[in-house]
């Protein structure tokens, strides 16, 4: 049985009294305006649930959404907004408090998450409740709910649950690489579209910013060049600075359809699996999610693979070799027919699975190790999780890099060779090092590319009100 808490009927009056006292202490000259920085620091001190960096970010974003004039904010406006937020948070709490006893127990929480197409096991329910269950009663009271979401971007229930679960990071998979699932309401109100567009924009900006290193990698893979600076000098001498972005247009263009196809297949697989039943008979496991993610990514890549070949062919061309991309497509098709669009497909397909396996296992190991050694079992920040994701992705990339190098070389070569012929040829000429040509510029682009993608997505999230 779960311990029941009494619901405080005058909770909003107590909270507002605290806020009023806080404002009075800051507004000592009684001007009705206080410094934004002073208010932010005071509000951060009121939160004893979130990690310091997380509450600092929440408070900063919340206050900036109030659009203060200069470095000060109107106290009356602030208190009115906080009162309205308190009312909205109570309404969202009442929505999941199904038996109206003043607390939310694990069963009620599970049913609330089922609306998000998220079915949680008992241990995960306990883990997510522990985040805000300060009195260790295994239930959530209104006061705990109010404090946890006081400065959240949105007071709507679905947005709150999604940000809550994302903050706890329940899944034992690398969520940075998993497609998202959206509820019917999120489809109706356009959340999925805003989220998808933000992801597409961040990917495009990141891809364009790191395009010079990507072209350098492709050129070194295809030609067997080992020296980074001499290869970069050659490309610069051939076409100047602009040549480093050759093939980037195709790379950017293929991202959106690949994301859309992957998302559609992932959603279809989850619907077929039937894990959305509120009775929670058979929760979907992390291994199943991992399998769905791999399969949807594999099928999406198969669909857009001709664009991958075209990107490599464009990146390897010299200045003036073709006037338009359509001229290049016509020349390639006339030379070999439709088969040219699937050169290197076998090597690419083989490389997908070891890369996904290493990424899956290493990310979970690093996350668990970080929690045990650094944060004393508290979840890492989102930025830390992105960095851990980068490390696991780099190791996954190197585990499958020989197959990707063979793929690139097969995509470009004039006289087609089989997978095993190509592997034998590389081994005879360059040894094991030959399978890692281009890996240095590829490694150099990981951190700036992921950082840019992270920052752009954060900006787009704010711009498109994704968390509201």
TrEMBL record:
<feature type="domain" description="EF-hand">
    <location>
        <begin position="84"/>
        <end position="119"/>
    </location>
</feature>
<feature type="repeat" description="Solcar">
    <location>
        <begin position="284"/>
        <end position="369"/>
    </location>
</feature>
<dbReference type="InterPro" id="IPR018247">
    <property type="entry name" value="EF_Hand_1_Ca_BS"/>
</dbReference>
<feature type="transmembrane region" description="Helical">
    <location>
        <begin position="383"/>
        <end position="406"/>
    </location>
</feature>
<protein>
    <recommendedName>
        <fullName>EF-hand domain-containing protein</fullName>
    </recommendedName>
</protein>
<dbReference type="InterPro" id="IPR002048">
    <property type="entry name" value="EF_hand_dom"/>
</dbReference>
<dbReference type="InterPro" id="IPR002067">
    <property type="entry name" value="MCP"/>
</dbReference>
<keyword id="KW-0813">Transport</keyword>
<feature type="repeat" description="Solcar">
    <location>
        <begin position="190"/>
        <end position="272"/>
    </location>
</feature>
<feature type="repeat" description="Solcar">
    <location>
        <begin position="380"/>
        <end position="463"/>
    </location>
</feature>
<keyword id="KW-1133">Transmembrane helix</keyword>
<dbReference type="GO" id="GO:0005743">
    <property type="term" value="C:mitochondrial inner membrane"/>
</dbReference>
<dbReference type="GO" id="GO:0005509">
    <property type="term" value="F:calcium ion binding"/>
</dbReference>
<dbReference type="InterPro" id="IPR023395">
    <property type="entry name" value="MCP_dom_sf"/>
</dbReference>
<dbReference type="Pfam" id="PF00153">
    <property type="entry name" value="Mito_carr"/>
</dbReference>
<keyword id="KW-0472">Membrane</keyword>
<comment type="similarity">
    <text>Belongs to the mitochondrial carrier (TC 2.A.29) family.</text>
</comment>
<feature type="domain" description="EF-hand">
    <location>
        <begin position="120"/>
        <end position="155"/>
    </location>
</feature>
<dbReference type="InterPro" id="IPR018108">
    <property type="entry name" value="MCP_transmembrane"/>
</dbReference>
<keyword id="KW-0812">Transmembrane</keyword>
<dbReference type="GO" id="GO:0055085">
    <property type="term" value="P:transmembrane transport"/>
</dbReference>
<feature type="transmembrane region" description="Helical">
    <location>
        <begin position="340"/>
        <end position="363"/>
    </location>
</feature>
<feature type="domain" description="EF-hand">
    <location>
        <begin position="14"/>
        <end position="49"/>
    </location>
</feature>
<dbReference type="Pfam" id="PF13499">
    <property type="entry name" value="EF-hand_7"/>
</dbReference>
<keyword id="KW-0677">Repeat</keyword>
<keyword id="KW-0106">Calcium</keyword>
<dbReference type="InterPro" id="IPR011992">
    <property type="entry name" value="EF-hand-dom_pair"/>
</dbReference>
